[in-house]
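Figure 3 (text version): structure tokens given as input.
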């Protein structure tokens, strides 16, 4: 009898420990650019930033979904770990927002000017959409207190800024002559601050913000660098990315003091990608410089899934064996790369995400 009681107590203690670590997240909301987009641009008639054609999506979904990779993104892996369905694009007419939604739009930025030419939804537009969704959910629940609790226990993830730097600034020599890098970065951080404060006003209390990765080391950046007689990564892009990350880190520190009721995790994406680049063979990558799909130098001269010009002197890479590549196309990682990054964001230490990881954030009660 005594042994039975001891065993029962041990089982109860173990069960309690498991329950205390179980996710208490009812929904997930994603905002940002093509690194998280689940296919919103497919529903924007005039968008030029679309990948709703093969071979995108072939590895996991076996069809193009509008995701800018061969399979799942960080948003998808997080949803799966939280026990939630994969997020539907917020613009999908069939979307059900009871478990969250993905507002990210490929090609978008923090600045309105970054998103305008591509016909995509800027960050401010995404926040407006979420505001409408939050109001709709409150009405559907019929109880303001329940809706407030639902929104406060949901997790909100954001990544943005790479298009602002790569397209709006680095491709505009006139702007570079009139606006210094630090001034431009400050304008981005100002918009980021507005975004976070807006989400807080709408009920967000658990958030994960991801820094920019190795902007200058994508296949396309390497191609640009080669035209400028640089060997390897594009120095200016990496410098701008690091400057952005430093300012974003300071913003997050300030917001933690300003918004003590909000839990904000900062994903150290640059550290994670740098670690992968420096240990490529350990992670099973045969190439970290060329895209799996595309054509031309670094397979970045012609975009993935697009036809090469007549008499193009380079062989077209059709995206075979993506698990051997860090990059799927000339800008975006492969599903396996996203998986590796997510694992560190989910359970990693302070070198990957601080002050707590996504697993810890998911178990925090507001």
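Below: residues designed for each position.
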């Amino acid at each position: 009898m005594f042994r039975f009681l001891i065993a029962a107590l041990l089982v109860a203690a173990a069960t309690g420990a498991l329950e205390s670590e179980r996710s208490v997240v009812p929904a997930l909301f994603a905002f940002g650019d093509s690194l998280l987009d689940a296919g919103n641009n497919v529903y924007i008639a005039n968008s030029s930033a679309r990948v709703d054609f093969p071979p995108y999506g072939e590895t996991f979904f076996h069809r193009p979904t509008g995701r800018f990779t061969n399979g799942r993104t960080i948003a998808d892996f997080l949803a799966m770990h939280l026990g939630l369905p994969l997020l539907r694009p917020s613009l999908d007419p069939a979307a059900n927002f009871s478990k969250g939604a993905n507002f990210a739009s490929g090609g978008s930025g923090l600045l309105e000017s970054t998103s305008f030419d591509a016909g995509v939804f800027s960050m401010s537009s995404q926040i407006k959409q979420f505001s409408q969704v939050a109001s709709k959910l409150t009405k559907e629940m019929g109880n303001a207190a329940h809706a407030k609790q639902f929104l406060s226990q949901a997790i909100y993830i954001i990544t943005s800024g790479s298009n602002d730097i790569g397209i709006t600034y680095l491709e505009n020599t006139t702007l570079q002559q009139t606006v210094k890098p630090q001034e431009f970065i400050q304008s981005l951080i100002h918009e980021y601050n507005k975004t976070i404060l807006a989400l807080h006003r709408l009920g967000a209390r658990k958030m994960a913000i991801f820094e920019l990765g190795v902007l200058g080391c994508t296949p396309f950046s390497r191609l640009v660098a080669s035209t400028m007689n640089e060997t390897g990564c594009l120095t200016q892009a990496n410098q701008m990315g690091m400057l952005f990350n430093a300012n974003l880190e300071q913003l997050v520190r300030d917001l933690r003091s300003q918004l003590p009721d909000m839990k904000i995790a900062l994903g150290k994406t640059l550290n994670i990608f740098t670690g992968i680049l420096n240990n490529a063979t350990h992670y099973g990558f045969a190439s970290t410089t060329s895209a799996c799909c595309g054509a031309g130098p670094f397979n970045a001269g012609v975009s993935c899934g697009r036809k090469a010009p007549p008499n193009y002197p380079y062989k077209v890479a059709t995206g075979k064996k993506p698990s051997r590549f860090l990059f799927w196309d000339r800008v975006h990682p492969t599903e396996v790369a996203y998986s590796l990054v997510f694992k560190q964001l989910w359970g990693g230490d302070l070198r990957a995400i601080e002050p707590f990881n996504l697993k810890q954030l998911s178990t925090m009660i507001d």
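The first strand starts at residue 28 and ends at 32.
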